[in-house]
């Protein structure tokens, strides 16, 4: 529970880290989900707001990618699959978006559906995903 001293200290550490200006997008995604699980709604919303500004919007979907990544080639008959880290960080943002009390708003659900659309487009022919885990 969030009241346990170890969890409370860990959340304090995350809160201090969340204040840094130069957090990586993957770090923000993980922290947003951690704060969502801990019930820290304001921190979750702040991080999700920051992440939304960094989102890649393409073909009616939303995802996140590593900063400084080269744009993908737009070749006919070629379906690009994102690296596993990008699938994972986008999935963490989706989980943070949907983990709220009492329930996600209609606006949050609409945005979440755009994220889910991108994630589902990353499935391989067997229905799985590339993963680092």
From TrEMBL:
Pfam families assigned to the protein according to its UniProt record, in alphabetical order: TED_complement
Annotated ranges, domain Alpha-macroglobulin-like TED: 4-133
A single GO cellular-component term on record: extracellular space
Name the UniProt record assigns to this protein: PZP protein
